[in-house]
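Title: Comparing notes on inverse folding

I've been comparing how different people in this forum approach sequence design from structure. To keep things fair, I'm posting one structure and asking everyone to reply with a full sequence. Here's the target:
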């Protein structure tokens, strides 16, 4: 029988088990330096991503994607763990085991080297791949009520306002409320005030839509205003 191949495989496995621990110790200094560089790179990318995300969230009413939020959280947690390991490495002499004399703290150096090696692998996993952050945010849904510009209100009939407000908020059987009157009597101002109150109140309406209809009403323009307010793509909108 040929025992050479199984014996060779056994020797390879035993050598791997013996050399890997010593590698953790021999390469500790270089691996610590590599870990510092990898961490600085991740921190720089994280700062850039965070700055861009915060700018888009503020300027474009957007929300960071779950992928971005998850990655930023992992990098923050990783950096905290690395800082602890680096402090420990600074406090311990970089001792090589299997040298002329066996150091008493060889085992602790091995454990530190193993942790550093594991963190290097984690840093490689956290390194973003090309195109990973092409899209960092997604638009927020439109607010339930869009505020309208209002001039100073003079002579508004508060009793009528309260009556309409009661119908809107408490009279569930009321489905349509009509305001009528000649031009310039304050119908638009009245409705802007109702819209303003809705923007401040806690109500059950999912969305409030403001549509201006002229005397020459155009059905398509009315429907398009509703579509835009509901944030529905034009291709999905059926007139």
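Reply #1:
Here's my take.
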């Amino acid at each position: 029988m040929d025992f050479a191949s199984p014996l060779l495989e056994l020797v390879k496995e035993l050598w791997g088990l013996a050399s890997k621990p010593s590698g953790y110790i021999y390469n500790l200094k270089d691996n610590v330096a590599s870990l510092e560089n990898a961490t600085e790179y991740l921190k720089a990318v994280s700062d850039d991503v965070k700055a861009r995300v915060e700018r888009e969230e503020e300027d474009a009413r957007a929300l960071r994607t779950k992928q971005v939020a998850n990655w930023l959280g992992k990098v923050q947690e990783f950096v905290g763990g690395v800082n602890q390991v680096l402090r420990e490495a600074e406090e311990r002499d970089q001792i090589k085991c299997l040298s002329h004399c066996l150091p008493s703290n060889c085992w602790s150096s091995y454990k530190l080297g193993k942790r550093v090696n594991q963190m290097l692998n984690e840093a490689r996993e956290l390194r973003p791949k090309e195109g990973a952050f092409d899209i960092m945010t997604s638009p927020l849904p439109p607010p339930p009520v869009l505020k309208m510009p209002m001039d100073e209100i003079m002579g508004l009939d508060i009793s009528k306002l309260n009556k309409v407000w009661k119908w809107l908020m408490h009279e569930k059987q009321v489905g349509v409320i009509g305001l009528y009157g000649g031009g310039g009597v304050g119908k638009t101002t009245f409705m802007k005030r109702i819209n303003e109150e809705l923007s401040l109140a806690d109500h059950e309406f999912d969305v409030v839509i403001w549509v201006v209809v002229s005397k020459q009403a155009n059905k398509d323009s009315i429907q398009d205003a509703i579509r835009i307010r509901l944030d529905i793509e034009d291709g999905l909108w059926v007139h």
